[in-house]
Amino acid sequence: TKPPEFYEIPDDFDPQALLASAWGVWYTDDQPQEVVLLFSKNVAARVKETLWHPSQKTEELPNGRIRWRAQIAEPKEMLPWIRGWGADAEVLEPESLKEEIKEHARQLAATYNIMAQTNTPTTRLLRLWGKTVTKSSLFHPALYHLFDVAHVAQQLLSPRATIRWRQALGSALNANPDTLHEWLPFLIALHDLGKLSVPFQVLNDSQANRLQEEGFDLGKATKEMGRELHHTIIGQSLLQDMVSGWSYALKTAFLSMVGGHHGIYRMENRSDREKLNKFNESPEWETLRQHAVQLLHSHFVSHWPETLPEPENMSAAIVALNGFCILCDWLGSDENYFTPKPNMPLAEYIVHSRQQAYQRVKDAGLLQTAVSHTPATFKDLFP
Asked: With the C-alpha atoms ordered 101, 105, 111, 116, is the resulting torsion angle positive or negative?
């Protein structure tokens, strides 16, 4: 047999020098490459407390994020570590490493059937949050919540539901009860338009940070400033121009619904408009709101009345419309039926929302035909 061969480690071999630039055990005869990563505020403290590589340097940024850099022999060896940080780590350099991460992200998107996002008005609009999940970065887009509530209104005004909703609203609004489903859900959808604004979007710190990282201009707005102007009042202010040509009674009933669906009736005043103007929103915000209104109108208005109704009793119209909106909002906010879907495409979510609205209204027992055999005359009631 062939005698065993032995290898003798040279006396001048220095493993520490060989692996000085290695992330783990990969080394190269080429010069190390500079790797630059951007860590979010969420993990900044964790990043700073550990020496991940002998050559690392960190730079604290004004927004709480960390820019981390190091000289690495083979950057690809870092891929599992970088992916482990999820969305809290962004590769800035080198380009080859960035492309590796981007490809992995695309593969994940394909695995979970998430369409690639582009900066269209719709995709930008869907990044604005309406509801959040406790102890999670997950959010339900504000636009999707508007669809949810309006779809509930559609179900309640449809022929499959009891006629009482249509009769009560038709009487209060002085409108044809049989055609309310053709246009009224659009008005219900606008109840939370005020959430598509800087004052509302800054109320959640983690969501505000996310929006800034995604390129939304929040100016110098703070949570404290946002708390001074409730989204219901913002909605009233934003919708003033749209209703300028309506009858006074219908306009007042609608704006009272927008401002009062949380149970407090208050109309916008001059000081509210002044507070909103102080936020100095960039033009994109109005563009996104107008786009939202157009999307909702195209979906929920099958026939706009040639002549809008003029309620004869304004107080009755306010109570009826606001009460109906509160019911729709309550049903449309049920997280057991309307779960956060920030990555679901709009067309797909519309179908999903309509189905969930039907199921929620049905499970609430509101699709059952209401029949009463109680006598209605005074003589019969009080013999």
From this structure: negative
List, run by run, the mean pLDDT of 10-residue segments along the chain (383 residues): 79 72 79 93 92 91 93 89 92 85 75 69 94 79 97 94 91 95 96 95 92 90 87 91 93 94 76 82 94 96 93 94 95 92 88 96 85 64 66
- Domain 123-363: give its CATH architecture: Orthogonal Bundle (1.10)
End-to-end CA distance of the chain: give it in Å, rounded: 120
Exposure string for 333-352, b = 16+ CB within 10 A, e = fewer: beeebbebbeebebeebbeb
Q: Which amino acid is at 353?
A: S
Name the DSSP letter for residue 29: S
Gap between the Cα atoms of 101 and 120, Å rounded:
24
Could you give the CA distance from residue 357 to residue 17 in angstroms, rounded to a whole number?
65
Structure-block tokens of residue 172: 């209060």
User: Would you kindly state where each structural domain of the chain is located, as residue ranges?
Assistant: 15-111, 123-363
**Residues belonging to the chain:** 383
* 16-32 burial: b if 16+ Cβ within 10 Å, else e: eeeeebbbeeebeeeeb
Q: What pLDDT shows up at residue 116? A: 54
Q: Say how far apart CA 127 and CA 208 lie, in whole Å.
A: 11
CATH topology of domain 15-111: Alpha-Beta Plaits (3.30.70)
- The CA distance from 14 to 72, in Å, is 18
Per-residue CA distances from 52 to 64, 332, 369 (Å): 20, 47, 67
Give the C-alpha separation, 263 to 277, whole Å.
25
Question: Residue 315 is inside which H or E element, if any?
Answer: helix 314-332
The structure's pTM equals: 0.69
Q: What is the pLDDT of residue 374?
A: 64
User: ω before 4 within 30° of 0 (cis)?
Assistant: no
Amino acid residing at 2: K
Please report how many Cα atoms fall inside a 13 Å half-sphere around the Cα of residue 34, on the Cβ side: 8
The predicted pLDDT at position 371 comes to 60
Give the model's pLDDT for residue 99: 77
**Alpha helix locations (H) across 112-247?**
121-125, 142-157, 164-173, 184-189, 198-201, 205-213, 223-227, 231-238
